[in-house]
């Protein structure tokens, strides 16, 4: 027996993930070809606020002249990042605020984030079980027990998880189909629960020049507010237990 750790995915599962990845890449290439000929060296996933400001400065003129292409590119990239667990969606949310303002940015982020989470959900449902067991065995055991215990009020629990930073969103996206969270509950909790955090980041994006650090987005007051909203979402669960 070899001492190496076995790769968690089978060849069929790797082929399925590769097919999904190729589809997204083809979509991005297609969108790129519809844009005007120019120097696109500034196009890259932002990893710092400085990267984000450079991207914003270049995209502002394109957003007014090629609004639909910019929206489709943004939407596709956001979904791609969430589907394949690529970090950095907080920068994409800030960019939405910088380019489209609070109202437009909120709609864009919530729709894109919900679509990306849904894409990750269904990809995990096809091939994610061995990956989730390999990456997060302890979190999965905890999550599975909580879902089983709160099945009667599962929407409230999932909403609490989305509003608060109790569990990482990437883990929730991947693990939900593994522990049999119905997609309808997952979808509704995601689309509603992401609103508070999306508002915080999109609003900050409208004043990108004043933002010193991404850490400033979630200070003690912001985290406390999110937890307060999360506790309110669990109130029906507490009340139902008290009536038993």
From TrEMBL:
Ranges that cross the membrane: 14-34, 71-92, 98-123, 181-200, 220-239
Cell compartments where the protein resides: Membrane
Keyword annotations: Membrane, Transmembrane, Transmembrane helix
Transmembrane as UniProt keyword: yes
A Gene Ontology biological process term: autophagosome assembly
Highest taxon in the source lineage: Eukaryota
Occurrences of domain VTT (ranges): 86-205
GO cellular component term, pick one: membrane
Bilayer disposition of the protein: Multi-pass membrane protein
Cross-referenced InterPro entries: TM41A/B, VTT_dom
Pfam families: VTT_dom (PF09335)
Protein name according to UniProt: SNARE associated Golgi protein
């Amino acid at each position: 027996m070899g001492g190496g750790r076995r790769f968690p995915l089978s060849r069929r599962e790797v082929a399925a993930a590769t097919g999904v990845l190729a589809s997204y890449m083809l979509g991005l290439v297609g969108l790129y070809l519809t844009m005007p000929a120019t120097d696109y060296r500034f196009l890259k996933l932002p990893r710092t606020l400085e990267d984000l400001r450079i991207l914003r400065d270049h995209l502002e003129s394109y957003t007014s002249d090629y609004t639909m292409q910019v929206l489709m590119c943004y939407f596709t990239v956001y979904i791609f990042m969430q589907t394949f667990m690529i970090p950095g969606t907080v920068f994409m949310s800030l960019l939405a605020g910088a380019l489209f303002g609070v109202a437009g940015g909120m709609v864009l982020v919530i729709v894109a984030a919900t679509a990306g989470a849904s894409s990750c959900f269904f990809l995990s449902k096809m091939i994610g079980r061995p990956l989730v067991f390999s990456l997060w065995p302890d979190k999965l055991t905890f999550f599975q027990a909580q879902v089983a215990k709160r099945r009667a009020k599962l929407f409230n629990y999932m909403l609490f998880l989305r509003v608060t930073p109790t569990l990482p969103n990437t883990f929730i996206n991947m693990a939900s189909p593994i522990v049999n969270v119905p997609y309808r509950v997952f979808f509704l909790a995601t689309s509603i629960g992401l609103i508070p955090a999306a508002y915080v980041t999109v609003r900050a994006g409208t004043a990108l020049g004043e933002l010193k650090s991404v850490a400033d987005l979630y200070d003690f007051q912001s985290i406390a507010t999110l937890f307060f909203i999360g506790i309110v979402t669990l109130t029906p669960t507490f009340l139902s237990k008290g009536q038993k």
